[in-house]
Design brief:
Structural class of chain A: alpha/beta
Number of helices of chain A: 14
CATH superfamily of the largest domain in chain A: P-loop containing nucleotide triphosphate hydrolases
Strand order of the largest sheet of chain A: 3-2-4-1-5-6-7
Largest sheet of chain A: 7 strands, parallel
Oligomer: homodimer
CATH architecture of the largest domain in chain A: 3-Layer(aba) Sandwich
Number of domains of chain A: 3
Shape of chain A: globular
Strand content of chain A: 5-15%
Helix content of chain A: 40-55%
Distance between the termini of chain A: 32 Å
Low-confidence stretches of chain A: 85-98
CATH topology of the largest domain in chain A: Rossmann fold
Largest interface: A-B, 77 and 77 residues
Order of helices and strands of chain A: HHHEHEHEHEHEHHEHEHHHH
Amino acid sequence: MAALISVEHLLRGDRRTVARAISLIENGSSGADEILSAIYPHTGKAYRIGITGPPGAGKSTLTNKLAQWYRKQNIRIGIIAVDPTSPFTGGALLGDRVRMTDVELDSGVFIRSMASRGSLGGLSKKTREAADVLDAGGMDIILLETVGVGQSELDIAGAADTTVVVLVPESGDGIQAMKAGLMEIADFFVLNKADRPGADQAVMSIKMILGFRPHDAISWMPDVLKTVATEGKGIQEIGDLIARHRLHLQQTGSLMIRRRKRMKDRIEEIVQDQLKIEFWSAERSQQLLREIDAVMNFQRTPYQVAKELLNTL
Amino acid sequence: MAALISVEHLLRGDRRTVARAISLIENGSSGADEILSAIYPHTGKAYRIGITGPPGAGKSTLTNKLAQWYRKQNIRIGIIAVDPTSPFTGGALLGDRVRMTDVELDSGVFIRSMASRGSLGGLSKKTREAADVLDAGGMDIILLETVGVGQSELDIAGAADTTVVVLVPESGDGIQAMKAGLMEIADFFVLNKADRPGADQAVMSIKMILGFRPHDAISWMPDVLKTVATEGKGIQEIGDLIARHRLHLQQTGSLMIRRRKRMKDRIEEIVQDQLKIEFWSAERSQQLLREIDAVMNFQRTPYQVAKELLNTL
């Protein structure tokens, strides 16, 4: 399969080749690592922006408007939308087609949905790798969009240079947002649908909570922007604040530190995935299946069985 | 540390001992596995119910009311509430104290919050283990409550016999719920805050989506219940439906199949955690740190470094 993908074409930004490479990654095909190794030296130029928040916050609309704003400046945009998959259709519910109506087909935009069915754990790895493909393919900015409560928001933060958390007035009292761990990863907040009642109150409560966050004079202080994405209101402000955050990261050296940390996590993840694959040989998987009955009958404990399996190494 | 925990006391349901054992698990202390092995033969009696849904759906209130309902029937209840942790306070935001005001201190109820800070991956393991402690400690029913979007809902489904997904009219058009993957794990739905506008519409759209789900005449068909948890409305109906689902699982043999599958996942998880711990020796961690600069300078690829690390095995 890998032979079908021309690295040369990919580096020229050929859309079909880029799409095919991402499919290989998404499917966990064997050729993926080879391609990723080949393109790796050509990555690192694109700036990666994570956009996350609760369901219904308007992330897709906001992502599309932001992409349009960048396009007007002739900046090449890649979008990776991580859609938790429907268990019934087996595919992402809001696929590429829906998105295409907003951001027109334009050779400077590449949009891709990735499904997360049953493999949320591996999603950060795949998202990063798909971003690498877009990066090597010549995109200047990569927008990574996902629903964020729980693990997925950490995945996004682990793949992005700047992370934007989108909330709405209904997202509640800010405490819920804190509970969801979104505070931890936000480089700044966007309060979308800010024409709805309760917007100013929501902004205030987010700011109050941010005030508790330990910070000093020189470090970056997350702000809250109000937007109405459907009307394009506040999009330029988001673009400007991203640019300001990027500059901050570059000037303080934080960008390199963040990327270095991400690389460490990434290598660890590659190693651990491979360890898992190598460990669970057909033989060991069968040994596990044989032993489960004894565990279910309380003749053995799961810890004993795990230890025996580990001893076969 | 482990010596301080008397398995005998734990099996008698001594509250302090139970609390201490769960703390050991939560902190990942070394003595935890020993205790879990010792109590394992005394588990399997409690019925485990997962309660999940988006932030603000009223899960805590509903859990407390359901616990009160069980208590009236003299059923012993354990509650494990998984709170994503605040990054600022370092502890669960809504801790045991808040919860205690509703369900009174009563020797038949044991309530415990577990924080998920930075370790969402390991949460399913810890939740299951804490449930084992409550099970061995003599609880009849264990309620596992967590915010569910992304990985955490899969964790809950992986630890529970029956999984209840709580939504509210504002949870939106049902499509968002499907997107969030909640449909996949729900044994039934609760539409809480059903006195709010849009409740009937929300119920209808959930039912419509459920209609698409492949099912046959004998298999369980998830239903939707309406509740107003703050007023105690619909709580009995939840309790009854849980009982009906439990009976269904027992009569069809599905309970054993579910528990067997869970045990398989659990043993795999124990093995993989241990593999990871054993692999990342001080030496290998340092090798990784040494190599990162070369990767950042594009002299090497992350895949090469990962491969070399794996070759040291």
